[in-house]
UniProtKB/TrEMBL annotation:
The lineage of its organism: Bacteria, Pseudomonadati, Pseudomonadota, Alphaproteobacteria, Rhodobacterales. InterPro entries: Nucleotide-diphossugar_trans. It comes from the Bacteria. This is Uncharacterized protein. It comes from Roseobacter sinensis. Gene3D superfamilies: 3.90.550.20.
Length: 269
């Protein structure tokens, strides 16, 4: 790896089936920046926007991992939790393969940017942690090694969990004689929580970029995406690069005139 080299490659994953409207719009916004965009899939995805390169996700991570991520205690999460946690592993193994910076499919992009090939790139969330929606590691990062070791274990319980998930939750399950799997210990145990804990462990937590780059409207304010409030600053101010749309319910409804979402539909839908 050349020290000082920069990259522009973006990548994401969609397991299979049709993309939602919000994902199609956001992927199109990534393409519009002029940055190369790759979408890894594990099945047929018929409505991928033009300009997105589609590749087989198995080249990054074998889909067989899904079978090891099935919750046992929280049976109501069986239909979706394995895929969510699989994607957390996937974005890390994407870095091992040198596949470029990970963006969730629901990140709306405003402008192109470059990132250093030999440095981490992640962004601080409003709670002070590290977001999982925007994520890059150099291929030789020790954080990747943590996941490689974990996936080779019979038990997928990581050693980076905080006290509540590492000690208290398993204790409750055992006291109540409830069967459980590692996936039952927490939705974000391989994602946001892992990135926060491992970034601290390996001394790169302080390199997180400011929240405004991708999480300016977070938590309840994320709904402003769909309201007629000022949004032109996202395109005008260089501090804002993209926005994670984590509250997506309104994306399926008719847009409010004057909203950022209406503008996004006009540009990219």
């Amino acid at each position: 790896m050349t020290v000082g080299a920069t990259k522009t490659q973006l990548a994401s994953m969609w397991f299979d089936g049709p993309l939602r409207l919000v994902d199609r719009v956001c992927l199109s916004s990534m393409v519009a920046t002029g940055m190369p965009v790759t979408l890894y899939t594990f099945g047929d995805v018929a409505n991928v926007p033009a300009g997105v390169t589609v590749k087989d996700g198995n080249a990054i991570l074998d889909r067989a991992l899904l079978e090891r991520l099935v919750p046992v205690a929280k049976k109501d999460q069986v239909s979706w939790l394995p895929t969510v946690q699989f994607s957390d592993f996937f974005r890390v193994f994407l870095q091992k393969a040198g596949g470029g910076l990970w963006l969730d499919t629901d990140v709306l992009m405003f402008k192109p940017f470059e990132y250093a090939a030999d440095k981490v790139y992640f962004v601080r969330e409003s709670n002070g942690g590290i977001g999982a929606s925007v994520f890059y590691l150099p291929p030789d990062s020790p954080i990747i090694d943590e996941y490689v070791r974990l996936i080779m274990q019979d038990d997928l319980t990581p050693d980076w969990l905080e006290f509540k998930r590492r000690v208290l939750r398993p204790m409750v399950y055992r006291l109540t004689r409830t069967a459980f799997s590692p996936s039952d210990l927490g939705i974000t145990m391989y994602g946001n929580e892992a990135f926060r804990q491992l970034a601290r462990r390996h001394g790169v937590f302080g390199q997180a970029h400011p929240q405004d780059r991708f999480y300016h409207w977070s938590d309840a304010r994320n709904e402003d995406v769909f309201k007629p409030v000022p949004w032109a600053f996202f395109y005008d101010d260089p501090d804002y690069i993209g926005l994670h749309i984590h509250k997506k319910t309104e994306a399926a409804h008719a847009p409010e005139p004057g909203s950022l979402w209406q503008d996004a539909l006009e540009r990219y839908a």
